[in-house]
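Hello Y.,

Per our agreement to keep a running log of every chain we model this quarter, I'm adding this entry. I've kept the format consistent with earlier entries: sequence first, then predicted structure.
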Amino acid sequence: MIDTRNPARPSKTFSRTYVAPDLQAHLDDGGTVEDWIDGRIPLISYARISADRLQGDGIGVGRQHKNNARNAEQHGCVIVLHYEDNNLTAAKREVKRPAFLQMCRDIAHGKEEETGVPVRGCAAVERERVYRLPRDFIAFQDALVMVSDGDGDGVFIEDKSLLDLVDDDGTVIAGLVTPGTGEAEVGRIRRRTVRNAVDRAEEGKVYGGPRRFGWLGACKEPYRLGNKHKCTDEWPYLVDMIKARCAGRSWRAITGEINKRGVVTARGGRWTEQGVKALVTNPAWWGGRVLGGDVVMDRKTGDPVIGDWDHATEESDGVGYEAWKSIMTGVKANRLHRGMRRAAEAPHPEGELRTRGYMFSGTLRCGRVNDFEEVCYSKLSGNKASGKNAKYGDYYRCGDANCKGVGRMVEPVDHYLEEILLAYLDKHFTGTEVQMIPWRGKDKIAAVRKQLRDIKDSVSSGESDWSDVHDLITRLNRNIQALEREEKDHLTAEWKRNLLQGWSREKWGQMELGEKRELIAQVFTSVVVMPIPKGVSDKAPFDPNLLKVTWRKDKRDGQSGDG
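Predicted structure for the entry above:
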């Protein structure tokens, strides 16, 4: 089942699916799913919230589940599964909602894939929790239609009302294009938001959003706008970072220094180079603002609009707009090139685009003790050799700002690790069998295809008129396409799960770099690169004993011997 939460990096945004707690308690006591359902219609409780104002605790979606359970009981239904997308909007086409997509698939098949718990529909506190865009409405409606092999007995409960999305009488479709759910209205809201942002920028109004380093956050009692007033404790450090960059200090050096001084970010974390870049290149510190890649200018004077918040000036802090322009001339990343838009035909600077072109970048970790007396453990990335060191070849290097770092030549590291990797795979996985779990939709897609063929044959023979079956054929084609996408996703997941099975050296030789990296991630947890001991030359022969390999134990369970 889905759970995108990461305990190592907590976030408000997550999706997950799980058995309803009441049903799970019943199962833990030795009961069965059939006894729990007891003739009632099994439903999924779907909960979604666009903006989690708390700390990612999922309180908003939890309240929706509670109401869905109560409302389902009023219609002879019972909640058996919980699906939720927390802190995810349904109004943007580019935003994927994993739980919603999985819900549509499980409803179409009539059961949850892993547990086999039957489902016949969904309950939500309002339809906008489930769909806002026509695309999502169609996907959800198609799933309800495919329940019970196309009999169309899918159930949808909105709040306390039982809605019929299957027998289309025109009311639901009409409701779809009204201001509440139509894509046109979503577009209008976006344009209204953009206009409001432009108006506020031209008027010099205070930035919205989370608190920025150097300014105080919002406060209710006494009332205070966020990002308007300086934070006297943080402001000197912000000015120091700006002056250091103006003086030519590297981003890495600035980051290392601010961390050594014990200064934390606005969220209480440790600074990174990207965090320092984002802060220093943000024109807010001198009172400016960028919209659409350009500094907001006064249309009458042609000068930058200075915002209505505390900011640095040449007189008070020794830095201002001119200093920012000087800093920006050395910024290459498009994402940070605020107000300094390049011409469309200008080529990207060399090295600006980074790719995963090295086999063990990301797997290698730095084993040096950093400035905080901790093992660095930052990822090593591959770097292309240049200048006078080009003759030595490409190299892996730690880029942490608070660590002197370690580095190794790519060729000997790749050769050594590849050999022990292949030896391990030869020993533990040669002769193992590939065990592919069959896709659950094989019979369903065959039935839908047969239904489509039968309808087309009836048109060809004159038994049916094309105008009568056109909408039905359109829907069946959508069903087939959705099932084909699901089958492709299933095969991809099974390929990854069986990547180590049926092992042979020939298999390795046929793999692309991306496939090899996928396999490496399933075998190695990490490889810690230790610093070269004191007294040993940097040009000394490669020492494999300075690479400390950690294996993924879960891949070795049930296998004999060690790697």
